[in-house]
Amino acid sequence: MPSSTYSQISVFVAVCIGVAFFFVFEVSFVADIIFSALCILWAGWVFFSIFRDQDELKWASVRYALATASSVGVPLSLAFVMLMVTMPALQNVVSSVAAMSGSGLPLSAVGFGLGVTFAMIVMSAVFVISQSFWWVSRR
Amino acid sequence: MKNKIRVLRAERRWTQADLAASLGVSRNSINAIENGKYDPSLPLAFRIARVFELSIEEIFEEEGV
Predict the structure, then answer these.
(1) Contact predicate A12/A127, CB 8 Å
(2) Is A65:A134 a contact under the CB 8 Å cutoff?
(3) DSSP secondary-structure letter at A25?
């Protein structure tokens, strides 16, 4: 897998952790704005790096990983979120994290935020695994 | 799809890196194409043909034909 993909995934995981942090802990409004601005800057950097990097093989791997992440990762994420909502064991974990939250947000908002974050992590994992598989199969 | 890129490159004493630089792609791309692990797009196939001063048909060959 190309190094730039590693860096993008690393930033993505950091963003997911950051979002979860914002939902669980009390964070100032200024920090919230700075974090959001950094996310937008990162999105812009990724967007322009896509046009800068024209290597065909890398593009083929990204296309494959995106197709897999959207066709397999999205249903998997939905299943994961549904399990979180319905299974008592997982429900308790989310509820206890939400109850411990010092963010001042309503419990439903914390639960929603954690659900979205976990769904993003599942899709990212599918993206990384499928892209790694693609590169290994072409060695 | 089979191709003769490895042979053509060896005849010209080019490394994979040399060919990759003249085509504007990564060395990984050249390696994958040479080993038949990846079929290049039509624009890249034309660029490869131009670099070797041959036609596409002289470099690439459809398998099982």
Answers:
(1) no
(2) yes
(3) S
Nearest-CA distance A68 → chain B (Å): 18
Q: Is A3 on the interface with B (CB under 8 A)?
A: no
Instruction: Give ipTM to 2 decimals.
Output: 0.74
Contact between chains at B26 and A60 (C-beta distance less than 8 A): no
| pTM tops 0.90 | no
Q: Which residue is associated with the tokens 């190094």?
A: A3
Domain map (residue ranges) of chain B: 2-54
pLDDT, one tens digit for every residue, chain B (65 residues): 889 999 999 999 999 999 999 998 989 899 999 998 899 999 999 999 999 999 999 999 887 76
Determine whether domain B2-54 maps to CATH 1.10.260.40: yes
